Protein 1
Amino acid sequence: MKFIDEYRDREAAARLAQAIRRLVRRPWTIMEVCGGQTHTILKSGLEELLPPEITLVHGPGCPVCVTPVELIDKAVAIASEPSVVFCSFGDMLRVPGSTHSLFDAKAAGADVRIVYSPLDALKLARANPRREVVFFAVGFETTAPANAMAVWQAAREGLANFSVLVAHVLVPPAMAVILNSADCRVQAFLAPGHVCTVMGYEEYESLAARYRVPIVVTGFEPLDLLEGLRMAIAQLESGRAEVENQYSRSVRRQGNRAARQRIAEVFEVSSRRWRGIGEIPSSGLRLREPYRRFDAETRFALRALEAADSTDCIAGLVLQGLRRPPECPVFATRCTPERPLGAPMVSSEGACAAYYLYRHYERA
Amino acid sequence: MNELSLSLSCPVPLPAGDRILLAHGGGGRLMHQLLEMVFLPAFANAPLEARHDGAVVTVNGVRLAFTTDSYVVRPLVFPGGNIGDLAVNGTVNDLAMCGARPLYLSAGFILEEGLAMETLRLVTASMRAAAERAGVALVTGDTKVVDQGKGDGIFINTAGIGLVECAGEIGPAAVRPGDAVLLSGDLGAHGVAVLSVREGLEFESPIVSDTAPLWEPVEAMLKAGIEIHCLRDLTRGGLASALNEIADVRRLAIRIEEAAVPVEEAVKGACEILGLDPLYVANEGRFVAFVPEAQAEAALAALGRRAVRIGTVLDDPSAVVILHSRIGGHRVLDLLSGEQLPRIC
């Protein structure tokens, strides 16, 4: 298939792997930020092609994984209201809250629906004026434009029965947290190509300069990742620390201006709690004042919720690249995709689920 | 304003065991747990425990295959077929996978109040045509009507009886290390055809369900003298789930080549857009055959030009399915927990 098969070609992969082997002189630890990239790496068995000097650690870029427990609890509580049609992207449904997931709520009678776009939720709101349609606005900068557009559209149409439960998070502040950690092992980053398609990569230039860390904006196909790694390793070996763009077929330095404008109009930067990591200042988005009437958290008077993460789960360390999933004491024993203790085991983008699915022969 | 009350206690989620979830019907790990924890202990007997697509029983020295399946699909009509085609072909195929010539079917209809009579006529006409094509007769049936809202238009259950026409046992237990794994055609068309209508997706060239009866290709292999070890049609859960079930029952690993598995361009494209893996997408007219290495070429010739060899059974008791990826790496091809879920980004 055009634009897919070229990026999964065996000979081209072998050539890139060869180029990497020729470059490497010393051991390096590189983090791919996005969960989609983690899955490509494990799904294609890409690490087998790399020399032993290269260690990949997996980053926090899984929106499902970093959505805090209390927000899942709020989602379940809202969804359980008889008047509500609760809409979400599919992979949020399995994530455990304190006691229940959205799938459990659905089994108990809640009207929970999987949608492919927030605009589908908007359609449901138009078609069901007597129901409260709530969309779970989860994701990094990638999903923010469509979510902003849905709210903007609802405001324009005066749709009173539509609201969003916002759980938006931002990539650069999370990278800064990782780099600020005393235990940080990460020497270079593969930055998330889709986030940068929306936002551009100007913001990453200050990170690269401030922390002296190479950052390569990278795509999601196996060859993208191999090329991104080659570029990062070339920087590391030559002592450079710059932002480079491997994913040039999609990403421009300034990003997508129209999308950024829509985000900025509807959302403002706010502090956010990340599951497993904690509160990170200026790391999320919330609705701006003129749009706050579409905020499900205020529409449904929810009591302040506090919920602790499971004490056995080391998701926070995994999400910061400080541990790999099999190093967790409960990995594949008490924590499995059927009975997850932490979100990285749930999401199709979570690092723990990726190891469980694609590498479980290593457990045996 | 709606007042909500929430009670929080343990931060660790409860095991999802107190209610049936949709994922229990997804053909993945949860469904296997349901079989192992509820159905197998409740009904334990030897034919059931063979864990094959149908049961093979011997009556007065005659080996009969017996199977049943229920059909629920939304929308009822999709490109390339409707629920009626599935209800006949699905059961015919379960019999064929036992190496049995399908003979007789029953059909039970659960109809929802308000269903258009025209839809029912369309479905029954398709069932008749499918039965003729497969050479089976629909000899007994039942009808129930439920209140509006209590059904999805039409639910159909069919059961079937067939005559086993091969000398040896066909099933996971007969799989041997070194067996060649053959696939009868391209993957994913049925699941994507149904999903594309359900999600309102349109493609330049419409993707049409692969629903078809499978006795003919099985019979062709038997006539060619192939010693078939195991057959499995790749319905819910797709190729990945079928291989895992066989690997698990036989306690042998299976290795497959990702690049050898055929997927049509349009199906591949739709799967990329929807975030689905075609290896897990349902088919209604595709199967895998496990045959001795020495007969692999002859079996492929009997199956026709769309059939391909995708892998080999290993002499390895780990019982995992290993996929040799397109770029040259390896990974486990596991069962999914439940249904594939569309991803966020």
Note: The radius of gyration of chain B is 21 Å.
Protein 2
Amino acid sequence: MKQLSKNLIIIVIVVVAVLAYFSLFTVNQTQEAIVLRLGKITLNADGKAKIYRPGLHIRLPFVTDIKKFDMRLHTMSVNSSRIVTIEQKDVLVDAFVKWRINNIIAYYKSTGGNLARANTLLNQKVNDGLRAEFGKQTILELVSGQRANVMAVLRQNANEVAMPLGISIIDVRIKRIDLPDEVTQSVYSRMRSNREKEASLIRAQGKEGAEKIKSQADAQAAVIIATAKKNAAVIKAEGDKEAAAIYAKAYQQNPEFYAFFRSLEAYQNVFSDKHKKTLVLKPDSQFFKYFDDNNAVKQ
Amino acid sequence: MTEPQGSFDVKRWLRQNLPWLFKQRNNGSPESGDEQTPIALLASLIIAFLAIVWAASGIYIVQPAEQGVVLRFGRYVRTVNPGFHWYPRFIEKAIVVNVDQVNTVDLSQLMLTQEENIVSVSFVVQFKIGNLQQYLFNVVNPVNSLQQILDSAVRQEIGQSKLDQILTTGRAQISNKILKTMNQLIERYQLGIVIRDVTMQPATAPEAVKVAFDDVIKAREDRARFENEAQNYANSILPNARGQAMRIMQEANAYKERVVLQANGDVAKFLALLPIYNQAPKTTMQRMYLTTMAGVFKNSDLYVIDGGKGNQNLFYVPLDKAITPTQVKQEGKAQ
């Protein structure tokens, strides 16, 4: 009897423990949950769906089903979409979408709580928006000027299409906008020719600068030498003038004698060379006045 | 002795240190005088033991570089700082994370610049956890999100910068703007991450155009070289010209001095002779003439041709014999 009551107590404890186990559930910090009772969402007193926040909660065992939702910020990547811009150029675009669940009921109804399905649905809608928006822009606008605006428009549009999914779009951001290969090659050749132009310009500038320096130096040197020559000529002229004055002063004293004196000097100078000169004279020159004896006697 | 040491040790340890536990069990069963007492005792001992284990398992130490968050039934209740802590296992749960550790994400890719050029850039971002609660609970994979933020911010910024700016002076400015954009996005996404540093490695031209870019650098060196060479030329030609000018001036001065001296010298002889001439002009002239002509003829090969009216014979000197002065002299004697 005692044994029986003791066993009973143990059974009761076990049953209570099992019931407690099946009537309690926890929701993690990153999650929120709804409870389905026989497939129907449990409601609040005011008729709205009851949302279970993180912590320990009670449910009816065996007839309820718990659906937990990851309420964190999710990322949906759009990889290498080939999109045509307004100038009919293809560009490769990578983007990402940051989203979170903001309406659990709508989210549950549209996706069944399946994250992959949510991403797929979102991807289709965002891709459409991306194509539409890129089709209005040139590559240049997308790369530089309009990128921020395009992203803002994309976010707004994505938010509208994501609303029915119970999803709120926090951000849509473009990562990569790359040109397709053939366009890339033409960009490279343009870059090359620009650089070649720059290099030859720089070299020409260098030659120009060098010529300038050289020609300036040449001109300076020429001026220095010309100035020196001019000054030298002045000095030489002074010397000549002084010498002439000396000659004039002296010779004016007797011009006749000067003529004679100067002539004799000239003869002397002409015949004072080391190399002997040959003279052919008639014997009746002044020098030979007394050369011929007969003549001397006659005179 | 190759038995698993752990289980063997426990049994032995219990037997050695808690002999009463085994003794009672061994003694109790065969006697069976009192059935319940040992089992109840054993049960309560086990419960007490489990309680101690349970309590001990809740002890944890948060190291100085770490922080912890405590969850009660999955719900965040508090953040704990370094030190000695306890939590009731099964009810609460502690997650301890090193929040001082600096990690990096990086990006190294070709991308488009503002003028639709392509440039190769490379960034490294150092970050650590700033808000552990946000870091753990707000975002699916925060580090991956940071990487995406970096990709997006870098491409946006490079897309708004000019190639020359990226390659040369603009690095610090670009890094700063990227840091600003990333911080805005971290705030928007509530990542719980703090960026320590954004470093931009020197950007380079893509391989395909590298030769042309290097040639620009070479061209700049060439320009400097051309100008240096020209400067060297100028440096050599100007002193040379100044030296030449000095020589010209010296020569001119020397010339002046020389002609004046010479004039004085020339005049001196004339002035000395003049008084003598004045006394006896004719004799002096004759003497001077003869002296001079004597000197002149002495230095010359002299031929005298008598071309007088009476004597018509021609005197000639054959060219071959006229060459040496001695032969001429002999002929002169012969006449």
Note: The beta strands of chain A are 24-27, 31-37, 40-41, 55-58, 64-70, 74-84, 90-101, 167-178, 277-281.
